[in-house]
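Title: [Solved] NlpC/P60 family protein 3D structure

Original question kept below for reference.
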Amino acid sequence: MLFPPGLAGAAGANCSPAKAAGKHYINVAVATLWKSPSINRTLDRPSLTNPVDIGKWTASMTVSQRRWLTGRTETQALYGQEVRLLQEKGSWAKVAVVDQTTAKSKYGYPGWLPKSQIAMTTSAYDGCPFAVVSAKTAALYEQDKHTKALELSFNTRLPVAARENGWIKVYIPAGGTAWLRAQDALVYEQASDIPQPSGEDLVSTGKLFLGLPYLWAGISAYGFDCSGFTSTVYGFHGIKLPRDASDQIKQGSPMALDELKPGDLMFFAYNQGKGKVHHVAMYAGDGKMIHSPKAGKTVEIISIKTPAYAQEFAGARRYIGE
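Solution (posted by the thread starter after getting help):
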């Protein structure tokens, strides 16, 4: 059930966390996971602190500096996402993002980040509704509802403690609670209550990010890579896709070009479509696709006949019912 604006669901009105084994969660708005520890540049510092300033970091980079991230960063994770601690080295930790599936690890998508960006809790929120940020970015406020604690990205999910007068009270990773404006998020009692989207719904969500600069490893409203874009759009609508394009193509139902409907994903591979899959786009209808292409470009809508892509087409998949 989706709770109507301004109302609290029965569970949300008095949802208290239960005791559980210790788990680790992302404790910054957007955490960037690296291929190995301490390979970052000085200019990457805003992405490595707590709190982070992802807006400042992404805005400061030139195209060549963005390209440098290719192969050096792995993925990102959002505030409140669970991670599994795999290894520690000095001030860095290797973690796996539990809900980002990948062939790289059975535990989730792996990478290194500063230890200061994760928090451990012994609380479980399985019985609580959750809020998912539906605005491109949303302020998280402290208890006074005036002091801004963090700026959260689209698709951030947090357990809900209560709702009142246009506000959502949420549990936060380091313990305690904070507030979101109800206009910035949707609240569901459980994940299965998220409505099945139409293809048009998926495309409409994707269009929110037109003009957003590409960011290798990006999965937030501050920048997406190609598969970060598609997995985030689908994930917001309750459909879990693998993190990478090379894994996404292994799921769903195969579709021919003349069968495409809005929301279907199109894949592209080296060697004229016969080699390794390296890119994914979403079919937008009318012979066009929406995608986050590469460093120096932004989320855009182009013709599926664009030569650079048409010659590398490797297949399409559908993940929602007819």
